[in-house]
Amino acid sequence: MRISFFLVFSSLFSCMKKPEKQWTLRNLTLINNIGIITIALDADLDTLHSWNQVSDYKCGDLKYYRFQSHKFPMIEERDYLPQCPDSMYGLTITHILHQECNTLNIEFKAAEVLSNQKEHLYTLDTTTIFKIMETKIINGLPFAICATITKFKHIEQNLFASTMYKDNFINFNFKKTSSSISDSAFIKDSYAMLMTFQIK
To answer: What does the alpha-carbon distance between residue 132 and residue 26 come to, in Å, rounded to a whole number?
Structure first.
C-alpha cells in the first residue's frame, strides 16, 4: 500500500510543470538621444555594464551595453578580442559611438544584413550550426535574426539580431557559453525575450 502511494505521488510530481523562468522588464537609455529600449529579460541578467570600444578610425568606434549575471566576470571588448570564459551568459547591445557617423539616408535591408551575417559567421568557423535565419518585424521595426551553435573548446550559443532606428544600426547578441548544451531552451528563450523589444 505504501509502495503504491509512493508511486502515485511520484508520478503526479513528475507531471507537474517546472516553474517558468522569471523575467524582469528592463529599460536602457542609449546615448546621443537615440532612444530608450524596453525589453523583458531573464531575471538572472541582473547587472548592466557599459563601455566604449575605440578602433583605429572614428566611425568604427562602438558603444557597448551588456546585461549579464553578476556570477560571471565582466569581459569588455576594446581594441582587442578578449579571451572568452568557459561559462558566460548575457545580452550585448551595440551601436556606433559618434552621432556624426550614423547611417543617414541608408536603407536598412534586413535580408541583406542577414546574408552578410551568415557569410561572416561561416568564414569564422565552418562548423557553425545555423538554427534560425529570418527577417521579422518587431514593434514596427525590421529585424535580421540569426541563431547559431558553435563548438570550440566549449559550446557557444548565440542569437544575433540587427535593426535600424533613427538612422542608427542597433545590434543585439544573446550569448551563452558552457561545457555542454545544458540549456537547450536558450535560443528559444532569447528569441522570446527579443520579441518584447520596444524603443521610443
So the answer is: 25
Q: Which tens digit of pLDDT belongs to each residue from 52-100?
A: 888 777 878 899 999 998 877 676 665 555 455 445 789 999 998 888 8
Please answer whether residues 90 and 67 qualify as being in contact, where contact means their C-beta atoms are separated by less than 8 angstroms. yes
Inter-residue contact 101 to 40 (CB < 8 Å): no
Distance (Å, rounded) from C-alpha 66 to C-alpha 47? 8
Please give the Cα distance from 50 to 40 (Å, whole number).
19
Residue with cell 532606428: 165
Chain length of the chain: 200
Confidence of residue 131 (pLDDT cuts 50, 70, 90): confident
Say how many C-beta atoms besides its own lie within 10 A of residue 49's C-beta.
Answer: 14
The string of DSSP letters for 154-181 reads SEEEEEEEEEEETTEEEEEEEEEEESS-
Cα separation, 42 vs 6, in Å, equals 35
Distance CA 90, CA 82 (A): 15
- Please give the angle made by the CA atoms of 119, 120 and 126, to the nearest 5 degrees: 75
Sign for the CA dihedral angle at 44, 151, 192, 170 comes to positive
